[in-house]
Model the fold of this input.
Amino acid sequence: MASTNTLCKKLLNVKTAVVTGSDFYTDEDGVNHIRIKARPNKWHENDCPFCHKSCTRYDSQSSTSRIWRGLDWGGTLVEVECHTHRIKCPVHGILVADVPWAYPGSGFTKDFDLTVGWLATYLPRSAVSEYMRIDWETVGRCVHRTLNDIEPERSRRLDGLVNIGIDETSYKKGHKYITVIVNHDNNTVVWAAQGHGKTVLESFYRQLTPQQLSSIRVVTGDGAKWITECVNEFTPDCERCVDPFHVVEWAMEALDEVRREVWREAYSEAVQLAKEHPRKKGRPKADDEEAAIVKVAKAKAEEIKNSAYALGKAPEHLTENQQTKVAMIAENNSRLYRAYRMKEMLRLLLKIKDVDEADAELKRWLWWASHSRIPAFKKLYQKIKRHKGHILNAIRLGMSNARIEATNNKIKLIIRKAYGFRNIQNMLDMVYLVCSDLRIPLPNRKPKTA
Done:
């Protein structure tokens, strides 16, 4: 039969600790506790918590002991009690000596921190807080310690970058953004920071070594000027790509601008007809031509207003109802239908694999857009003309920002699960933890291969 000390040592899950005793007690709320009294063994009692080297003892043990929370044992709260002292490290200075069961500065055991970190990647923070019986904000600190343990040097993510994607995503109302950089080759976030714009992106490039900068060959992103300027300044030899996703998004915005303009015109016409043919008391007669004219004008405006979804979909995916709406627009509004066709032509040419064929089709599209007599598509013509080389690079290299857009969706999910973040560092820690190939080791489990 195992002794009490052996059982307690197994609960701590450490080999370099000595258990000197244990005690059961019940607190004022009726919750059962087991308090394990332990200390590091004499070979590790003066270890630095950061470099883990044996150092000079600085003072004697404190008169009061410290207590760490451990993982619950069948619903019983586990605590670890130890008298600590300070050591003098030649590198890190004067600090409290390391205890093998906890991370530096933590009030919890390592197993506890890792378990909280694992749960936080799958569950809402409020659920983790309730289950682990800790404060909501404490979850963020546990996640931070978990990340620092399994990946102490995040700068290694910046080694050997070849194909990267850059994008910004909002994390809070009021135009609060973070800039995210994804490695296309392994679909992981390599860098994230608060804010967006040239200043933020420059801080990423400036921390790269000349060797790391020279390894970058392709940079994808939207058409933001600040991305292009940073690429030209720091990695002038790499290929800058504007991915097809954003180009189609520009076309959709132009199409929607035309749709709103056409709807306003149709709505104004319906209002004007209603004024010219005021409705009489009672229900209009079946042969009332004036009422029929007003009704048709209102229906036309309503059809245009509700056609955004149909115009945005590819023709092969339209339902029967949506096909009817597009046919109605083709018959009654040539300007909006031309805008729809230009959007579709642009979408299809971006799927062409041969870059020479795509170049020829893009030249045709640019001519059509410049002669379309539609202001929104004339603006789009200017925009695509500026980025023509970058768009063709994306087609030639077969690159897109699909992975970084998927990463943005993951980030949105992280934020939604946490019901928002007050501490931006907590959010970035979760992004690094979830949007990567890191595996959090759970206690007493065989590690799974990636």
Summary: The first strand starts at residue 17 and ends at 26. The chain has a mean pLDDT of 86. The two ends are 38 Å apart (CA to CA). Residues 24 and 34 are 5 Å apart (CA to CA).
